[in-house]
Design brief:
heterodimer; A: mainly alpha; B: mainly alpha; 2 domains; 4 helices; elongated
């Protein structure tokens, strides 16, 4: 088979799997698991094959036009370059891991068939986005991911948190998608085509009339999808979904789609210095703010969610300084270790029966209950904190190195200010990242207090997947020397200055957190805390749903726990309260958008009920009153009727005579 | 004979009939008053027929022909009318028109005039009619 055929099969197989899963889910439950796992696995194998065949050489382009679509043609096009094939491998790998993990995690879930089919559909959409060479086809995948995310976040729709979170995720990403659509149209209008190759050619020849406008419109969609400030607020709430969903959608793939999209169209963004500065500021605010918020969260998954936002900030930062190689490098390594972190967090939540770090810090020996999760999560957290030689170190240093280049003015068209913004915020975030990674590890695995509950060993599939993902988290960085051949050719190996600086800051952050923890951990014994799921023996998914549902009643908030033993509280000081609430951005949005919309809705309701309905009711009431009045004349006495008839005839006759005589 | 005499007589007859229809309470007398009105019309028809034929403009005597029709119809009408009155009298024991008010609108209560009260009233009426 040709590489093109293989590449077409990659998104097609999970799609067929999803369709079959949805159709056969009820009638043939025995086939659901193979239908979920096998197409995704096959697609992964094919993606690897495509990557090997493509080999980082010249981009493979193939297109077919199904039907004429008017002025600007829409074609089913493939554009396979080094970025596409490698990201597809990552998507396939993570999706396969998640599907395998889910067979254990949602073992007894009655809605597992539809869940697995949606995961497959999602995977297929992401692969479509990755391989597509046509912007409209890419948009199709983009929107399918949005709707799959909505369904999967709302998987536990019995809980109000999940319902609210799924709606929020959908609305916020759609808020970005509307300008995104306009941006695509504007881009196609300027370039005369939706094909990525043609668009890039037009950019290179300077045919783009409004690069800043287009870049900013597209940026809105990217901010929504990739959870960048100010449209990031949906991602922490989306943790109300099952953990594998968080791992696949909200860490490794969907949120990466935005970054990947910019990487594909980077010349469009690079054509406008203003757009790059906006991108840099967005990345800087996102990464520092989210890292501070991560330090204050109590829900282990929300820590990881804010961490995802921050790492995506690194990627957009790398794009802002014009180095898409570094961005996609970080995307790949982050996809691996963040999926691992989420999946391990799922195991921990199941074992501990709670998602609260405060409650975990009061459990002794949680790490010996889940040794696989303990070791793999340690690896992933080291990668997250960018400690050499783990994968995160290489990719993050590539980002910081690119920023340093740009700051020194060596990156061509990229403004130096963007370089400085990204470099400084990247270094500050490096401290904070190490701090919250250390805090997470210490609170989850170094707890004191009662013995952790023993629910027996975790399912084998769940643990096996963790080790599969631990390999790239550990060793992916070693490919830093090979990857430039697949990407643009910029060297991705760490430079000395940023490596020493970044690693030093990470160590500082980690050590300071350790010190704070030593200081505060003595308090833990004095303040008992703990809300543990009511059914610890149940399916992991059930335990998690219960843990999320009981967090707010037990601690007063989904993100916050009144725990004086939290080192984050000591480190952040008075900032802690605000960071725990995500710097009150939700409250700001509530004041700026939600309340005006509600007030508008109230007004419309008032107008409808009190004004419009008054007319409608009046139209009914007036004839009724008239009828009541007229009915009084119905006495039943025939002679009265006749008298009135006679009188009426007489009046008519008189009138007729009068009219006739006046006319005469 | 001048046309005015039969015409005035006919007006008087008609008015007597009209008064009877509107004012008498006994159904039989009302029917008799109707007959009076019809005959007033008949008188008119015959009188005008004669007047027109004197003027030699109408040789068909359509007025007289029409009078014959009216008499026939009046006979049929009075037959049916008396039969109805007889039936009503047998059912109700009276032929007083003032008391035969079944088609009257049910007196609404002070607060509601809806179908809730109208429906039982209708039921009463149908019972009474049967």
């Amino acid at each position: 088979m040709t590489t093109t055929t293989l590449a077409v099969l990659v998104p097609l197989l999970p799609f067929l799997g999803a369709a079959a899963g949805l159709l056969l889910g009820r009638t043939a439950p025995g086939y659901v698991r193979p239908l979920a796992v096998l197409p995704t696995l096959t697609a992964t194998v094919l993606a690897v094959l495509v990557a090997v065949r493509q080999g980082g050489g010249r981009a493979i382009n193939a297109a077919t036009e199904l039907t004429p679509t008017g002025s600007v043609p829409v074609e089913l096009a493939l554009h396979l370059d080094g970025f596409a094939v490698l990201v597809a491998v990552l998507v396939g790998l993570v999706a396969s891991c998640v599907q395998i993990y889910s067979t254990g995690y949602l073992r007894d879930d009655p809605r597992y068939p539809s869940y697995a089919a949606l995961i497959s559909l999602f995977t297929s959409a992401m692969l479509l986005v990755v391989y597509s060479g046509d912007l409209i086809v890419l948009l199709v995948g983009w929107e399918i991911m949005g709707i799959c995310s909505y369904f999967l976040v709302g998987h536990y729709w019995e809980t109000p948190e999940a319902r609210a979170a799924s709606l929020k995720a959908f609305l916020v990403t759609k808020l970005g998608d509307v300008p995104f659509l306009f941006g695509l149209f504007a881009l196609a209008a300027d370039a005369g085509s939706f094909r990525i190759t043609t668009v890039l050619g037009a950019v290179a020849s300077g045919a783009l009339d409004h690069p800043t406008l287009i870049a900013l419109l597209l940026l809105a969609g990217v901010a929504g999808k990739s959870a960048q400030f100010p449209l990031h607020t949906w991602l922490p709430d989306a943790m109300a979904g099952p953990t594998p969903v968080s791992a696949l959608i909200h860490a490794a793939t969907m949120v990466a789609a935005g970054v990947y999209f910019i990487a594909r169209l980077l010349p469009v963004f690079a054509a406008s210095a203003a757009a790059l500065v906006v991108l840099a500021v967005m990345a800087a605010v996102t990464m520092t703010g989210s890292a501070l918020a991560a330090l204050a969260q109590d829900d282990i998954k929300r820590v990881l969610a804010y961490s995802t936002i921050g790492q995506l900030g690194y990627m957009t930062g790398a794009l802002a300084v014009g180095d898409r190689g570094a961005a996609v490098f970080h995307l790949l390594s982050h996809g691996a270790f963040k999926a691992l972190l989420f999946l391990a967090a799922g195991v921990i939540i199941h074992a501990a029966g709670t998602n609260s770090l405060a409650a975990m810090s009061r459990m002794r020996d949680l790490r010996s209950r889940v040794p696989d999760a303990y070791w793999t999560m340690t690896v992933a957290l080291l990668a997250l904190a960018a400690i050499p030689p783990f994968a995160g170190f290489f990719s993050k240093e590539a980002v910081l190195g690119a920023a340093e280049h740009a700051a020194a003015g060596e990156a061509g068209a990229v403004p130096g200010s963007a370089g400085w913004i990204v470099l400084v915020s990247g270094l500050v975030t490096a401290i904070l990242t190490a701090a919250y990674a250390t805090r997470l590890w210490l609170l989850a695995f170094r707890g004191h207090g009662a013995e952790a509950p023993d629910h027996g060993p975790q399912p084998v599939v769940m643990n096996a997947v963790l080790w599969v993902l631990a390999v790239p988290s550990l060793a992916f960085g070693l490919t830093a020397g090979l990857l430039p051949d697949w990407f643009d050719g910029h060297p991705l190996t760490p430079t000395l200055t940023t490596s020493v600086l970044g690693t030093g800051l990470a160590l500082v952050g980690g050590l300071v957190t350790y010190g704070a923890w030593r200081h505060t951990t003595t308090l833990a014994a004095r303040v008992p805390l703990g809300a543990v799921a009511a059914h610890p023996e149940a399916d992991a998914g059930v335990v998690e749903a219960e843990a999320i549902a009981t967090h707010a009643p037990a601690y007063g908030d989904v993100a916050y726990a009144p725990d004086p033993a939290d080192p984050g509280r000591l480190l952040l000081g008075p900032l802690h309260r605000h960071a725990a609430a995500g710097f009150h951005l939700d409250a700001v949005y509530s004041a700026l958008f939600v309340r005006p919309v509600r007030a508008g809705a109230e007004l419309v309701r008032f107008l409808d009920r009190e004004v419009v309905d008054t007319y409608v009711r009046g139209a009914g009431t007036a004839p009724r009153w008239l009828g009541t009045a007229v009915r009084r004349a119905q006495t039943g006495n025939v002679q009265t009727y006749l008298s009135v008839l006679l009188a009426g005839s007489a009046v008519l006759a008189v009138v007729a005579v009068l009219v006739a005589t006046r006319g005469a | 004979m001048h046309l005015a005499y039969p015409a005035v007589l006919s007006v008087l007859l008609f008015c007597t009939g009209l008064y009877g229809v509107l004012a008498r309470r006994n159904a039989i007398l009302v029917l008799m008053s109707v007959e009076l009105m019809l005959n007033a019309v008949n008188l008119n028809l015959v009188a005008f027929d004669v007047w027109l034929s004197q003027a030699a403009r109408d040789t068909l005597h359509s007025g007289q022909a029409l009078t014959l029709f009216t008499i026939a119809i009046a006979a049929a009408e009075i037959g049916i009318g008396l039969a109805i009155v007889l039936a009503v009298y047998r059912a109700r024991g009276t032929s007083d028109i003032d008391k035969l008010r079944d088609t009257a609108e049910a007196r609404p209560g002070p607060e509601d005039d809806d179908t809730e009260t109208a429906a039982p009233a209708m039921a009463d009426k149908t019972e009474a009619a049967a």
